[in-house]
Design a protein that fits this description.
This protein has 15 helices and ten strands. The strands form two sheets. Strands 1-4-5-6-7-8-9-10 form an eight-stranded mixed beta sheet. The radius of gyration is 22 Å and the shape is globular. With 374 residues, the chain is α/β, with parallel strands linked by helices. It has two domains: 306 residues, pyruvate-formate lyase- activating enzyme (Alpha-Beta Horseshoe); 58 residues. Helix 4 runs parallel beside helix 6. Strand 7, helix 9 and strand 8 form a beta-alpha-beta unit. The structure holds iron/sulfur cluster (SF4). Iron/sulfur cluster binds next to loops.
Length: 374
Amino acid sequence: MPFEQGPIRPPSEAESLLIRINRNCPWNKCLFCPVYKGKKFSRRTVEEIKGDIQAFKEAEQRLKALSLQHGYGGAVTVELMELIYQQEQELFQVAMWLYRGGKNVFLQDADGLAMPADKLVEVLTFLKKQFPTVERVTTYARGKTAAKRSLEQLTAIREAGLTRVHIGMETGHDPLLTAMRKGVTAAELVEGGKKLKEAGLSLSEYVLLGLGGKDGWQEHILGTAEVLNAIDPHFIRLRTLALRRKIPLLEHVEAGMFQRQTDEGTAREVKLLLENLRVTSTIVSDHILNLLEEIEGKLPWDMPRLLAVVNGYLDMPEERRANFRLGRRLGHYRTLGDMEDKRRFAEVEGLRRSLLERGEDQEEFIVKHLARYV
Ligand code: SF4
C-alpha cells in the first residue's frame, strides 16, 4: 500500500478512512494496555501525511475512472467493488470507504493531539481541501494532552476540520489512575474534557469496567462518575478489562496483587455507574467484550430502561445468568431477550453441561475465551 496504517481504531470508526498522523503511543505505560507495547512512538512529518492523503485522492480518481470505463457512472457500486476485489486490491480500502459514503475519517494512532497544533491544522486543512465532502474527522487523544492544549489551539484544530475526540479516561479514581500508570489525574481529565467541549469538539470518554478489580470496583466507579459528571461528555463508551499474555497487569494477577472482576461484578459496576451519573450524555456499550450490549441510550431520559436491563440480568436466577454469560461470550446471544429463543437457549445449556462434565470451570473458560478478543 502507498500509505501507512496503524493497528486500531474505535468500533464506531469502522466505516472511516484511516490516516496515520503519528506512530504508536507517546506514553505507552498503562498496565492494562497491550496495543503498542514494544513499539516506539514517532512523529510523522506533515509532508509524509500529505503524501498519504494525496495517495488516497489518486485512488479515488482512479476508482472514478474505472467506474466510468465500466459503465457505472463514476460511482463506487457493488459491481465495481467486485472488480476491485479481483483485480485492483490496492484500491480496495479507499473503494470500501467511498462505497460506505466517504464521509468519515479517523486520524491514528494513540494521541492525535500530540501533533503540534499548527501542524495538525495544516494536515486537516489539506485533508478538507482534497476531500471537501468529508463530514466527520475524529482521533484518539490522551486526557493529559488535551489538558495541555490551549483553548485557542483546540478551537483552531476544530475550525480546520477535527470534529470529535475519543479519550480513554478508563477511570476517574486518582489512586487507580496512578496504580495503572495512566499518566493523568482526574483533575486533568476534567480540564481536558471541558476544554475540548468548549472548543466545540464532540467528546467520547471511554470507561474501563473491571479496572478496579474485585477489591476496588466501587471507588473506581464512583470516581469515574464524578469525573464524567464534571465533564458531561457527548458520549460515554463502556469497555471491559480483559487480559492476555504480555499485558503487564496479568503479572499482577498472577502475583495475587490484582483480583480480576467477574462478569457479575461488571454488571454491578454498570448499575452503580448509572445510579451515580448526572449527565446528558449518550451512553454506549459498543464492544464485543462487554456483557450487556443493550446499555445504549440518552441520559437521563433512558435511565429507567437502562437500569431495567442491568437489574433484569442481576435479578435472574444464577443458572440463567450463567447461561447468558456463556451464550453472550460465545456469540449465541447479543441481548437478554435472545435467551427466549428456545433453540439457542438449549444449545448454550448443552455447552454448559459439557463444560461441567469435563470438570471445567465456566468462569475460567470465559476468561480464556475473552483473551482472544484483546
Ligand atoms: S495512553 Fe492509551 S494507547 Fe497509550 S498505553 Fe495508555 S491506554 Fe495504551
